[in-house]
Design goal:
The complex is a heterodimer. By secondary structure, chain A is mostly helical. In chain A, 65% of the residues lie in helices and 0% in strands. Chain A has ten helices and no strands. The chains are: A mainly alpha, B mainly alpha.
Chain lengths: 206, 92
């Protein structure tokens, strides 16, 4: 069935069309959600909620975007909502991770809590050896938790761009912000993680 | 040698500062710099060890994030019981 035909049938509340939709688009939506929530059980709950929303809101679907884009937007929003509801821990102020320069625009005093300097020992052993990094992370869940410590807007951008692998444009569409905002927030989020991954203590996420 | 490099990064016409390197870093990584910007960026890197380490660390961090998050992004199927649960929850 073509996408247009499928949409027509969905608008008529055809059960078979809805089943086709779930089977055809469910796996990719599940992949998107899983990348964000990092937990198969939560991802399954989210997928179910997302499809309920799809079913309830299919009448509002405008054909100016593809069906896949619309479905993924719902999946992403549902997953981000779950993440928000799970966020109990305090987020970190990103200002602590900004660079300092002298009058010549050269790097000078590094924030005491960061490890941006080339002379830092932890820089070499943390950044260049992925196996060592994972040993310290213990599980990939720790990385996800670390990302979730970021303020929400930075966390969302990082999850979609670097974890989910979406383009800047796609991320801006899904999060309904400009591409320049995506770039700025992603850059700051990466700088935070760069500092955090260089410091073993930062990996012990509570 | 370090002093010469420091003087060059400070006073050589057209040389980017470390601060400007930071502002170009995102676009450098994304491959969005113009030809001229790219040349200037790389020239500064060739002269500044702090920035070399900083940029290398930035790249490595992104690789680490992606490798750490590597999961099966798009499974071919979702479990049949999940499909049935979804269909059931949307039936009126």
């Amino acid at each position: 069935m073509s996408e247009s035909g499928l949409i027509d049938e969905l608008l008529k509340r055809n059960d078979d069309a809805f089943e086709t939709l779930v089977r055809e688009y469910g796996p990719s939506m599940y992949g998107v959600i899983l990348a964000i929530v990092n937990n198969p059980s939560d991802a399954q709950d989210c997928l179910q909620k997302a499809f309920v929303q799809v079913f309830e809101n299919i009448q509002s679907f405008r054909r100016d975007a593809s069906l896949k884009t619309w479905l993924h937007r719902i999946a992403i929003n549902t997953a981000l909502m779950l993440l928000r509801s799970q966020k109990r821990q305090k987020t970190v102020p990103l200002e602590d991770y900004s660079q300092h320069y002298n009058q010549y625009g050269e790097r000078t005093a590094f924030s005491a809590d960061t490890a941006f300097t080339a002379k830092s020992e932890s820089f070499d052993d943390s950044s260049n050896n992925i196996e060592q990094l994972f040993e310290r992370l213990e599980t990939k869940t720790s990385l996800h938790q670390l990302i979730c410590q970021l303020p929400e807007k930075y966390c969302n951008v990082l999850l979609l761009r670097d974890i989910q692998g979406l383009s800047t444009k796609e991320t801006s569409v899904y999060l309904e912000v400009s591409e320049s905002v995506v770039k700025t927030q992603l850059h700051r989020a990466r700088l935070f993680l760069k500092a955090a991954l260089s410091k073993p203590n930062n990996l012990r996420v509570k | 040698m370090l002093v010469i490099r420091r003087l060059m990064t400070r006073y050589m016409p057209g040389m980017l500062t470390c601060q400007q390197v930071d502002s170009f870093l995102y676009d450098f990584h994304e491959g969005n710099l113009s030809f001229a910007q790219n040349i200037k960026f790389k020239f500064h890197l060739s002269m500044c060890r702090d920035c070399q380490a900083y940029v290398a660390g930035y790249k490595q961090t992104i690789q680490n994030i992606k490798a750490g998050a590597a999961i099966e992004q798009h499974p071919q199927k979702i479990p049949e019981d999940l499909v049935q649960a979804i269909l059931k929850s949307t039936k009126r």
